[in-house]
Amino acid sequence: MPNVESITRGLNREQRDAIAHTEGPLLVLAGAGSGKTRMLTHRIAYLIGSGRARPREILAVTFTNKAAREMRERVHALLDADARGAQVATFHSTCMRILRREIAQLGYEPGFAIYDQADSLALVKRVLRALGAGVRAWPPRGVRARIDRLKNRGILPDDLVGGDDEDTQRFAEIYQRYQTELRRSNALDFGDLLVLTVRLFETRPEVLDSYQRRWRYVLVDEYQDTNPVQYRLLRLLVAAHQNLCVVGDEDQSIYAFREADIRNILDFEKDFPGANVVRLEQNYRSTQPILDAASAVVAHNLERKGKRLFTERDGGELVRMYEASDERDEASFVVSELLSWRDRGVRLADSAVFYRTHAQSRPFEEELLKYNLPYAVVGGTRFYDRKEVKDALCYLRAIRNPHDSESLLRIVNEPARGIGRTTIERVLACANERGVSIWSALGIALEEKRLGGAAFKRVSAFVELMEGFRAEAPGDSIGQLLARLLNATGYVAALEKEATVEAEARLDNLNELLSAVEEFERVNAPGVEEQENGDEPRDLLDLYLEQVTLLSEADTLDPSDDRLVLMTAHVAKGLEFPNVFVVGLEEGIFPHFASLDDPSAVEEERRLCYVAMTRARDRLVLCRAETRRLHGSLRYNQPSRFLSEIPGELASGDRPGDGGYAVGGERFPAEPSAGVRIDFSHAQWSPDDLPPFQAGQRVEHPIFGPGSVVEVAGSGSDAKLRIRFDRAGMKTIKLRYAELDLLN
DNA sequence: GACGGCTAGACTCTA
DNA sequence: TCTAGCCGTC
């Protein structure tokens, strides 16, 4: 057993408090970079090392596999080999493991498939078609998102109450059918993993009881991002002993779109009476200017407990700001900075570029290619989302679980084997009529001679092919199975015949998949992890398929390569880099335009900006572009409000907003000129009234000079004016920030 | 049943 | 700008 002294050595007082408080509910408010992973891992080690818990009595839940892996490794480093075996996993994989054991009680089979977003969308489309719901009234993506939101709130079709209006009823019908089809496929979507586990615990007290007794200590990372169904799950798990330790930072709650509820962390003390609270405010990552700038931004939010981050690090550069003319200029500025740093010996891997949306990566990629600089775009289209890779995996899935209809439909005519739309329609009709899976319907169609001569032959050949693989699948290595499968199905031959650059790339990807599979088999001696937990070893193919599905964006990041990483601010959470560029800081981009008319959504954008800024250890550079091409059209964006929320003394470079403008290379002073400032704090008009400007009026702007109002858009404090300035041309001015003089 | 060409609509963020 | 889905032709 490790020495308890050695476990707490080197921790600060607050961290030690958090570790020593082992019994009952505990809320740890951990600011960015305050050593929360350290606290969590040492807490696990302490629980075991002090003899309070056996490893298997501990459950630690995170949001990404990467975080789980890191935590597991760090716990292992603190403990002897025989003290390992605490379950450290994501919410989704924790639920998946529970369901693999228990799901028969809910009427599914343990070998269920897991549907990712693409599978789920395909199923929604099939359901809409079967129900005759038009895509205009029921856009598939919207329906999928609505179902997902409900599941994240723990609501299954049976729970939908009331709603006598047509929309609600029709939606309930769609949702019900979607869920029925999932069950017929013996498949679960991401939301099901959570909601069905809660359902299981709520309907089977004896099952819940066994897990309550098993996991006597529960730890949760990133608690601010839990959604209602995760919250319910945690409450159920700790109901008996209340040994729940949650760690989080309300300023880093950025997953409202998947129903994360910031109130979970804000109300923790109310939900768990008698909870202890520990605050970790000492930051071990960033310089003071970076911390102050990030804190100043997030201080503009109302929904927070408030904290003051400090560091013992001395000095540090000011936060830099750069104003680019367009997105290409923004990219070339970033790359030129990187080049000059590289000349001074800074590794590329020590820098990262964060943007709001994936679509912003492109100009950076082009610029980096120009200089032959290695880079990695994290996210976007994942390797496993590529068509050929997905096809190959669907073959494996269909062999493992033939009733997985989405997989089967995907590969039934891939490569083309003459089973076309007409045949499929017939089989689908049969499946709907009998209420069975597509695989069963294929059998029925053959048996009852429902298909024409040619179709009959092709379908029975396909069925035989799949059955042949099913019969020989066990015992075989996955790599061998996959290789044989790709050849026997003619998949490889079809690509080779195509002989295009694209086909060549697809073949490369399949080879890459093969090596990945082999690597997986090499690393995972049969069911290692499961055996540590005292469970039955699991089938390797099952493990592989679910691992691939539950893999997240950041999980694939390999820090040993010297390459620049580009990623969204969401993916960046939990990571840190010496040098960080946050780009595209413009109104409508970051904050994203979809959030602009909702104050709480803007607060979430602000938290996201805070997350991005606090990833930086030594240098932080903030960029924006005056114009940007988006979806093919040119847009003029105002500087992000977040930029003007940073106090002037913390920043250097082109400061927008009340810190002065740079226009055409010329610097303008921060002090407003004699223009009449419209002071909204004593507004003569209520925010919902029309703004006091009309098209056609002549106005004067302190920087752009005289001009004519062309258009007034929006109302209240979000109103915008389009003004054609005599010298500076057409500009869009946000009324809130405008210092306009009426000239009439 | 396969394939090519055209058009409307979409990109926010993710396990 | 890109792509999924539709339509027409062989």
Low-confidence stretches: 527-532, 657-691
Shape: globular
Rg calculated over all Cα atoms = 29 Å
- Please indicate the percent range of residues in DSSP E strands (runs of 2 or more): 5-15%
Structural class: alpha/beta
Question: Terminal Cα separation, in Å?
Answer: 83 Å
Which strand order do you get reading across the main beta sheet? 11-12-10-13-14-9-17
Largest sheet: 7 strands, parallel
Quickly count the helices.
29
State the share of residues found in helices, binned by percent: 40-55%
What is the mean pLDDT? 83
Give the tally of β-strands.
24
Question: Main attributes?
Answer:
single chain, alpha/beta, DNA-binding
